[in-house]
């Protein structure tokens, strides 16, 4: 059941804001749920969310202050940068004019944090239901649009990597890693809240939770995405270190909670051993496959770095830095990375980087920060860094004030560590994977601060009674 927030004026000032919010929450859940299952459906709900948000803001007094939100200011700066970058990019690469505009829209969707945070309304349940809708949509989408079980078994036996209905296996592996982090952070809350369910429903819910965890772990392993493996392992080590510090400082004193932590550790140890037994050879092969390439990189001579998964990234990043040096401030344009990559004459063995990109259909720089620098320059990257800092500070303040619960704050922090790591090796922010994850988690991180900010200057009308 969706529990709407208490009648804070910003969401209940009049019938317009009230109905915009209620319709918007339903649209938000469907927007998150359908992104992998149906692109047309999720775009329809996206087209509904933004107008509802704008109408709700415009229907209230103090709307000028609402549009003075730091993210609105950053959005205005971002769009102003596009007015400089886009015309030049279209003039340089006229064949990519339409793609330049589409890519600009895609990158700008990081600011969907604004309407998503508003519809969450600083309400813990709505925020959690939004994340749940995203996770269930991904899992069910993978089950019904991905490879069947017979094909998956064959892929595992042959060492192939399934896409599971996603754009490719890297996106599937990263989404699986994100789901595992979310389930680990919210498992205790889920078990506590499901304890109040009717017996049959309680065990069905818990069975579903375990099934999602099992499927996600399976996907995380068989997609063999090293960035996702690294991200989850780093997050797990950080979480373990944090737990040990809290136990040593006496912040965790409950014997029951200590027992739950110990049991969880044993479960993870058993899972790790099982994965090692089942896929140990494949994992080791995947991890150490390119150690020769890494050694060549460490020697500092890129001429000897061959074409491979890591080798291509090294050559692409080197070329990317050259491009940034040529157009440092405003970049080359949102979609210009494709023609720039294809026309590269940087040597890779006995061929060129452009020829390899063309032959193997490699169309981006495999690093979100590098892609953003090439697209919009140092100024564009500065806007994104400012956005990250703004959302991060809002999260910190919300947690310190007690508005955001501990498990949610931990999840937001760990997820963004994971997200930073995986985006060092892929350009997920250029694709829907990044849009929806950042929308859900960024909205969750920002909504509590937004609620407190709006409550300060949107007061209830005098003729209405608020409990």
Automatic annotation (TrEMBL):
<feature type="transmembrane region" description="Helical">
    <location>
        <begin position="260"/>
        <end position="279"/>
    </location>
</feature>
<feature type="transmembrane region" description="Helical">
    <location>
        <begin position="44"/>
        <end position="59"/>
    </location>
</feature>
<feature type="transmembrane region" description="Helical">
    <location>
        <begin position="203"/>
        <end position="222"/>
    </location>
</feature>
<dbReference type="InterPro" id="IPR051533">
    <property type="entry name" value="WaaL-like"/>
</dbReference>
<dbReference type="Pfam" id="PF04932">
    <property type="entry name" value="Wzy_C"/>
</dbReference>
<dbReference type="GO" id="GO:0016020">
    <property type="term" value="C:membrane"/>
</dbReference>
<feature type="transmembrane region" description="Helical">
    <location>
        <begin position="431"/>
        <end position="449"/>
    </location>
</feature>
<dbReference type="InterPro" id="IPR007016">
    <property type="entry name" value="O-antigen_ligase-rel_domated"/>
</dbReference>
<keyword id="KW-1133">Transmembrane helix</keyword>
<feature type="transmembrane region" description="Helical">
    <location>
        <begin position="372"/>
        <end position="396"/>
    </location>
</feature>
<feature type="transmembrane region" description="Helical">
    <location>
        <begin position="71"/>
        <end position="90"/>
    </location>
</feature>
<feature type="transmembrane region" description="Helical">
    <location>
        <begin position="169"/>
        <end position="191"/>
    </location>
</feature>
<feature type="transmembrane region" description="Helical">
    <location>
        <begin position="19"/>
        <end position="37"/>
    </location>
</feature>
<feature type="transmembrane region" description="Helical">
    <location>
        <begin position="228"/>
        <end position="248"/>
    </location>
</feature>
<keyword id="KW-0472">Membrane</keyword>
<feature type="transmembrane region" description="Helical">
    <location>
        <begin position="408"/>
        <end position="425"/>
    </location>
</feature>
<keyword id="KW-0812">Transmembrane</keyword>
<feature type="domain" description="O-antigen ligase-related">
    <location>
        <begin position="212"/>
        <end position="385"/>
    </location>
</feature>
<protein>
    <recommendedName>
        <fullName>O-antigen ligase-related domain-containing protein</fullName>
    </recommendedName>
</protein>
<feature type="transmembrane region" description="Helical">
    <location>
        <begin position="111"/>
        <end position="144"/>
    </location>
</feature>
């Amino acid at each position: 059941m969706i529990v709407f927030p208490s009648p804070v004026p910003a969401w209940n000032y009049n019938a317009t804001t009230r109905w915009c919010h209620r319709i918007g929450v339903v649209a938000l859940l469907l927007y998150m749920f359908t992104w992998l299952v149906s692109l047309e459906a999720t775009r329809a709900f996206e087209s509904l969310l933004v107008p509802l948000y704008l109408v709700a803001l415009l229907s209230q007094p103090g709307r000028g202050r609402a549009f003075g939100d730091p993210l609105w200011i950053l959005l205005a700066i971002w769009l102003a940068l596009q007015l400089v970058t886009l015309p030049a990019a279209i003039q340089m690469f006229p064949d990519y004019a339409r793609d330049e505009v589409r890519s600009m829209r895609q990158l700008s969707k990081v600011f969907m944090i604004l309407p998503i945070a508003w519809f969450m309304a600083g309400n813990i349940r709505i925020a959690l239901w939004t994340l749940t809708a995203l996770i269930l949509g991904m899992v069910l989408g993978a089950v019904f649009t991905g490879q069947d079980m017979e094909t998956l078994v064959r892929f595992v036996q042959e060492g192939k990597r399934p896409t599971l209905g996603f754009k490719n296996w890297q996106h599937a592996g990263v989404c699986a890693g994100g789901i595992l982090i979310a389930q680990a952070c919210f498992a205790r809350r889920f078990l506590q809240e499901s304890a109040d369910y009717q017996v049959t429903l309680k065990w069905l819910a818990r069975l579903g939770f375990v099934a999602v965890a099992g499927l996600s772990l399976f996907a995380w392993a068989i997609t063999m995405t090293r960035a996702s493996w690294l991200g989850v392992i780093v997050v797990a080590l950080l979480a373990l270190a944090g737990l040990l510090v809290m136990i040593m400082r006496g912040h965790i004193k409950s014997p029951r909670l200590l027992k739950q932590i110990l049991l969880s550790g044993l479960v993870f140890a058993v899972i790790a051993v099982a994965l090692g037994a089942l896929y140990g050879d494949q994992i080791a092969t995947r991890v150490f496959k390119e150690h020769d390439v890494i050694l060549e990189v460490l020697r500092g001579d890129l001429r000897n770095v061959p074409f491979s998964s890591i080798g291509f990234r090294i050559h692409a990043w080197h070329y990317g830095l050259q491009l940034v040096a040529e157009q440092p401030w405003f970049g080359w344009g949102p979609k210009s990375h494709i023609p720039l990559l294809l026309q590269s004459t940087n040597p890779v063995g006995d061929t060129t980087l452009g020829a390899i990109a063309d032959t193997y259909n490699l169309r981006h720089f495999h690093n979100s920060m590098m892609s953003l620098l090439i697209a919009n320059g140092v100024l564009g990257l500065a806007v994104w860094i400012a956005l990250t800092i703004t959302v991060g500070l809002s999260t910190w303040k919300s947690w310190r004030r007690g508005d955001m619960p501990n498990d949610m704050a931990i999840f937001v922090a760990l997820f963004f560590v994971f997200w930073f790591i995986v985006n060092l090796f892929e350009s997920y922010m250029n694709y829907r994977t990044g849009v929806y994850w950042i929308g859900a988690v960024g909205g969750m991180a920002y909504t509590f601060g937004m609620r407190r900010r709006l409550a300060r200057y949107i007061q209830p009308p005098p003729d209405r009674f608020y409990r």
